[in-house]
UniProtKB/TrEMBL annotation, chain A:
Position of the signal peptide: 1-22
Organism of origin: Marinovum algicola
The organism's place on the tree of life at top rank: Bacteria
Record protein name field: Peptidoglycan-associated lipoprotein
Topology in the lipid bilayer: Lipid-anchor
Name of encoding gene: pal
TrEMBL record, chain B:
The encoding gene: tolB
Span of the signal peptide: 1-28
Species this protein is from: Marinovum algicola
Pfam entry (one): TolB_N
Residue ranges occupied by any TolB N-terminal domain in the UniProt entry: 31-138
Family, as annotated: Belongs to the TolB family.
Principal place of residence: periplasm
Subunit structure: The Tol-Pal system is composed of five core proteins: the inner membrane proteins TolA, TolQ and TolR, the periplasmic protein TolB and the outer membrane protein Pal. They form a network linking the inner and outer membranes and the peptidoglycan layer.
GO biological process: cell division; protein import
UniProt keyword terms in alphabetical order: Cell cycle, Cell division, Periplasm, Signal
Protein name per the record: Tol-Pal system protein TolB
Amino acid sequence: MTHLTKIALLLGALAVSACTNAGRFGQDDPRLDGSAGAGAGAGFVPGGAGDPSSPAYFQQAIGDRVLFLVDQSSLTAEAQATLDQQAEWLLTNSDYQAVIEGHADEQGTREYNLALGGRRANAVREYLISRGVPASRLRFVSYGKERPIEICSDESCYAKNRRAVTVIAGSAVS
Amino acid sequence: MSVNHRVTQVLTALTAALALLLALPAQAAPLRIEITEGVVEPLPFAVPDFIPETAAAGEWGGKLAQVVADDLNGTGLFIQTPQDAFISRPTSFAAPVQYNDWKAINVQALIMGAVSVADNGQLTVKFRVYDVFSGQELGKGLQFQGTTEGWRRMAHKVADAVYSRITGESGYFDSRVVYVSETGPKDDRKKRLAIMDYDGANVQYLTDSSSIVLAPRFSPTGDRVLYTSYATGFPRIHVLDVGNTQSRILESQTGVMSFAPRFAPNGQTAVFSISEGSNTDIFTMDLASGATTRLTNTPAIETAPSYSPDGSRIVFESDRSGSQQLYIMPAGGGEAERISFGPGRYGTPVWSPRGDLIAFTKQHKGRFHIGVMRTDGSEERLLTASFLDEGPTWAPNGRVIMFTRETQGASGQASLYSVDVSGRSLRRVRTPDAASDPSWGPLQ
């Protein structure tokens, strides 16, 4: 088993436990209307959103996600502004790792969307690296169209599903 | 399932006796359906309840006839004449066929069956097929034996034989499909692998739903399944033994993600995609040694590879031109030739087991289609249209395609559908829960 696989397994364990947390998507960026999730307030680390060093602050005040145009993985100016702040936070709070999760809307075939989500997540990862975040602290994964947060079948939902979410994975990976 | 079928020929004495009745002038054309011509008028057939030949066999006669009838009706090539239209009802498998009674109600193919249950519980099913208008038996009688749990398979074998005798092509009824069973709302979908008979009966679950599983693919003999699982937190290819449902992750998978696996016709090699950075390419792996070979090397998304039946070529999708299109390359890699040129995007190509056609998913003007084209890209035909159709898989005889259809909106759900290569006989395959990503296995 390669070193990379070991890391993948560790991160995988985190990702799986996160996936079983029904409240996770309920704590979304307040700019989104949050209709997808019930049960907000899962609070998986100490430190509320008011604490600038907390992952909750990262998620809610900075914004943990960026959105993409149809079938695109290039970063908009708005996305870059969000990622500049994400990079700053990650540089300040250097104990944390992050997994960038890439997603696609449902308008695409399953395999292609998996690859497209990977492109999006990697675009975020490369941008954060270009802003000085060490590559070793950043992993990415794609969920393709498997994990929509909005469930209607029109552009208002698709726009929010075409996303890359920077999930703070805690400092457990060592 | 451990059904041990033996196929034996029934005595042919009856045939000789019936030959005397064949003095009548035969119909101009023999009983025959040419599938390629596209059947407008399905052929009327009758299948009376199989005649019970032992006391314990009574319950099976109607069930067997029903499955045979459903199989044949489902093709769209045949249409059942209902039993309440029958003028006479056979009471003995050995009695002469009353052809005039079947001609009078325009039955063209008559399937006569009998069933017996031995003291040890063994089920024996035998049948004969008659061409009513020529007054001849079509082929010889056959007999199958198995356990009572395997009764549906015996009915499917009867239907396969009837289909084969009338169309001249092999059937597809005694086959299984592996797929993804889905439960839960759209934003919290649970997925697990399941296997079923081609008609949705006998569903068994192969995995639990603790991690996302995607796109299972049968091995050529149906003994193993390749699929993508997030069990490690990342998409990785696993192989599952259908017999004992044990699965393992394939060794030495490099890259961030690996997915879209499919077996080579030899059953020893897997072809799949690896994503590294923003790039997704196609690789093969020798399943025994884990040795991996790169087949494509462009900055594009290249995925959904599928072998030609002779193993010499691979069809796949790539967006190297700027949008998803279909390409064919030699099985060892090398220069790829684009075959899709129509408007829209083309993905998930699958090579027909007959070698003649490529099935694909097409997106155009906000609609999804399942279509087929020849391997040089000519004669494209779209077979379906809906909000979201994708992921075709071929019946073992290359005449029917099963695929995923997902409905629109917040309550949207995935189901399995089948359609024949002419675009007829679109029908939903009933499954206990929502279902996606079918892979049709071989004729058993």
